[in-house]
Amino acid sequence: MSFFSANAQETEKIYLSGKGKDDMVKWDFYCSAGQNSGKWTKIGVPSCWELQGFGKYDYGFAKDSLRGKETAKYRYHFNVPANYKNRVVQIVFEGVFTDATVKINGKLAGPTHQGAYYAFRYNISKLLKYGADNLLEVDVAKHSANESVNDAERRGDFWLFGGVFRPVYLEVLPQQHITELAIDAKASGVLKAQLSFTGKADEIQMDLLDANGKAFGKKFSQKIDGGQSAFLNANFENPKLWSAEFPNLYIAKFSLLNKGKVLHQIDKKIGFRTIEVKERDGVYVNGVKMKFKGVNRHSFWPTSGRTTSKAQSVEDVKLMKDMNMNAVRMAHYPPDAHFLDVCDSLGLYVMDELAGWHGHYDTPTGKKLLKEMMTHDVNHPSIIFWANGNEGGHNLDLDRYFKEWDIQNRPVVHPWANYGGFDTQHYRQYNYGIGNYMNGHDIVMPTEFLHGLYDGGHGAGLDDYWEAMWNKPTSAGGFLWVFADEGVVRTDKDGIIDTDKDRGPDGIVGPFHEKEGSYFTIKEVWSPVHFEAREMTAGFDGKFNIENRYDFTNINQCSFTWELKKFNLLDNSLAKPILSGKSNAPDIKPHAKGVLNIDLPKDWFSYDALYITAKDVNQHEIFTWSFPISKPNQISKAILNQAKANNKVTYSSIGESFLVKVKNLQIKINRSTGILESVNNENREIPFNNGPVLQEGANNFKGFTAKMDADTLVIASVFNKKESYNTLQWSVYPNGFIQLKVKYFPGEFYTWFAGVNFSFPESEIKGVEYMGNGPYRVWKNRMKGTEFGVWHKDYNNTETGEIPFVYPEFKGYHSNMYWCKFLTKGQDFKVLAADEDTFLRLFTPRFMDDQWHNYVPLFPTGDISFMQAIPSIGNKTQTAESTGPMGQKNIYYDYEKSPERAKELTLYFDFTGND
Question: Average pLDDT, stretch 129-155?
Fold first, then answer.
């Protein structure tokens, strides 16, 4: 440990620990129970001791067999220079799980601190040996002796840890110094500051520096007429305002003086911004009404628990910003200081939360911890809300202290409750409400909604919710649950990642920030550049209707580029070079609508797809939208036309089957049912069979006949309105392609499924290449976030939120299929779709069950399906159907069974093995 010399009027910070999970410092350590207990050894600090191989892992709901027995002792030796003897030295702990008793050289530094997530400090000036070795001892109890602390912090729906999990350092100050500083910088340029200090002083001065370190405005000063506090007023003309879109920061330099001599100096980064809540209307930042696109975030990393780092904070915020989020809620405790610093500098609105989860602190304890939170966090411009506990863990006696101690008087919410003009209820159904929520009068801002579980939630249902929120005047947006899966590395179980079954896999990203499908859905749904749906037809005039859903950014501050792509089908000669260009960003003010013009070449209609990428003022991608130009029937015809048609089709009846041959290809079709029984090519079986089988429809194909139509064999069923109203036709062409045409009526008025199934052994698949939307799978209530193109996917057996965290998942529904090449351990084969909006279903994922049975993903029978309607998916707290219109079953109305009104599905199969 080294010390450095600094200006005696400034605060020095000397770390006794590392600054985070990546630079821990070894301390002596003794754990009383669990792993590696009963002996003195070493541990990295800061850390959660379970992740370092000590103690016992516990999830919040678990009955802890070591409760009250799991404690630890820390020891660390450090030196203090002799010249610090005339200064004030404080030891600061940023966070300890959960009760901490601190000794310096065998003497108590102060009373035991109870409460994990709050920075606390002791003045140890009189306990130190200057110019000599000093011994720091910390006794830590994982569970508190104060049951209200356990109620607020240790009985929650999250992992519980023990240890000195945030940094420890010394603060070295002059004898007379500023002890507290609270700043309120309004959008008007009016700045107020309240200070407390020790000793005698007669003046406070303040200088303001801009982002380039240049003085902004004049120096302000305030005379102090006795006492040990001061209030300073200043006014600055036209400061750059702070918002999530433009996080402009200044440095405020405060100096404490006496008779012209500078006693102490403090620097604080601040932002000028005003928060206003208008009753039954909304939340305004700098005069603009907000829609918060937020997420809940735990301080968490799989290998270090709640010990994080500045680099991780940067990564977390960048991922949130990349999803076009503008807000984050601290769940369910205050975060590391560096996370708030990053929110200040990169731009996120923050709801900072006093810990509580169905239980709360008693008033004396809560008051003390709230004061510590306020002192630590009050000056961050990113914080625009305070939250008093969570889901019933609200101590109402503390509400007045939020207002009393916050110079900015930021709004206070009670998450899960209707309080203070905010309806923040959690996990309400889309159509919920009798006189409240979306049908009420208060500002609606769910602090948790669309509770993720495995692949359900987050993106699933968000499009419905967000359009309702965007268009509801009293909606202020909301906060998804939760940012990342809480999967912790188990040092007691060979390093497996444990999510405690279905309790922890709630994230949009995996434990190590693996991006799940909902990540990209959110990115598109929450894009501040909103495209109206547009079909690419011959009459396209290059105009796209767009809406500016930014709050402060004009669209002309963004940039737009476009690309035209022609995909190689089977013949490289058909491929065309990618064409690209730029488009002028139109002048569209925030919350207004306008037109984006794309100046395309005359032959644009000969390409397969158009892509438009929007970038923000910092040249970060907002989203890339894809617009298919070619239709599936055009692509299938182009492929069919390339195949040589110089073979002869023959057939015969053998037993119950039609045996059909084309060159080396041989297929069997059942004469009674029309089911494909077998496929062989050059005496090698292709195990694709047992279809088409209608899902949720009557498989009443009957009366099959076979006949030649010129050089094509047609095997077709007969239509009968009562007995065989669904019809099936196979056509075998001399080029080896086989056409399947099914006309059918879904089985029910309300149905999850429409389409046909086939069998194929999962053990034989290696992967797929397909043209369509990808690479992520979709659900009926999560269709956005994909991109049209040609994709290659290798087989995996991933269940979202479970080991292995391999994305994108292979199995599931894939939208807008044009063609698919199945890569197998035997012979590859291809299927072409002639119809728009065909879904490719690949096998059945290994879904985990959940204790509430709301998740319930549905899949048809068989292994590979070609669907025209697919189901939605639920989440932890809601069934699929309660997430909005897109979550409802599909509706198909036709009881008359008229052939011309049947749904029609046309596919082409190529089992020849030719490319």
Answer: 96
Query: 597-621 pLDDT, tens per residue?
Result: 999 999 999 999 999 999 999 999 9
Asked whether the beta carbons of 58 and 81 are under 8 A apart, the reply is: no
- Strands in 443-444's sheet, in edge-to-edge order, are 418-419, 422-423, 443-444
Contact partners, residue 155, CB within 8 Å, separation at least 6: 60, 357, 358, 359
Give residues with Cβ within 8 angstroms of 457, minimum separation 6: 450, 451, 480, 481, 506, 518, 874, 875, 876, 878
d(CA 683, CA 78): 80
CA angle in degrees (0–180, nearest 5) for 168-253-86 = 55
* Tokens matching residue 296: 């809940």
- Which H or E run contains 387? strand 383-388
Q: Which domains, and CATH codes, for the chain?
A: 12-173 (2.60.120.260), 178-270 (2.60.40.10), 287-525 (3.20.20.80), 529-627 (2.60.40.10), 641-742 (2.70.98.10), 754-910 (no CATH)
Apex 607 CA angle, 603 and 611, nearest 5: 110
Helix (H) or strand (E) holding 315: helix 310-322
266: tokens are: 């403090």
The angle, 0 to 180 degrees and rounded to 10, between the axes of the packed helices 462-471 and 517-525 is 20
Residue 445 and residue 292 in contact, taking contact as beta carbons nearer than 8 Å: yes
Contacts of 255 (CB under 8 A, 6+ apart): 9, 204, 205, 206, 207, 262, 264, 265
The whole model's pTM is what?
0.97
Neighbours of 736 (CB within 10 A): 22
- Spatial separation of the C-alpha atoms in residues 824 and 863, rounded to whole Å: 14
- Least Cα distance to 141 among 108, 168, 102 occurs for 102
The SS3 assignment for 33 reads coil
Work out whether strand 543-548 and strand 529-531 pair parallel, antiparallel, or are unpaired.
Answer: antiparallel
Is residue 865 within 8 A of residue 891, CB to CB? The reply is no
Which DSSP helix (H) or strand (E) runs through 628? strand 621-628
Q: What percent of the chain has pLDDT over 90?
A: 90
d(CA 525, CA 462): 7
Residue from 875, 862, 853, 657 nearest 753 by CA: 862
> What 3-state DSSP class applies to 212?
coil
Strand segments, DSSP code E, in 279-348 are 282-285, 288-289, 292-297, 327-330
Tokens of 299: 């301080």
Distant-in-sequence, close-in-space partners of 260: CB < 8 Å, separation ≥ 6: none
Nearest to 420 by CA among 275, 279, 274, 287: 279
Annotate 584-609 with b (16+ C-beta within 10 A) or e (fewer): ebbebeeeeeeebebebeeebeebbb
pLDDT tens by residue, 242-260: 999 999 999 999 999 999 9
CA torsion, ordered 727, 733, 737, 738, to nearest 10 deg: 20
User: CB neighbours (10 Å) of residue 543?
Assistant: 11
Instruction: Give the Cα separation of 726 and 745 in Å (integer).
Output: 7
Q: Which residue has the tokens 């405060």?
A: 254
Strands 737-744 and 765-774, by their bridges, are: unpaired
119-271-232 Cα angle (round to 5): 80
Amino acid occupying residue 641 = N
How far is residue 593's CA from residue 561's CA, in Å, rounded to a whole number?
19
Tell how strand 737-744 and strand 903-910 pair up: antiparallel
In sequence order, which ranges of 22-94 are alpha helices (DSSP H)? Answer: none
113 pLDDT above the threshold of 80: yes
227 vs 202: CA distance, rounded Å: 9
Which two tokens mark 647? 């073979």
Coil, strand or helix: which one is 714?
A: strand
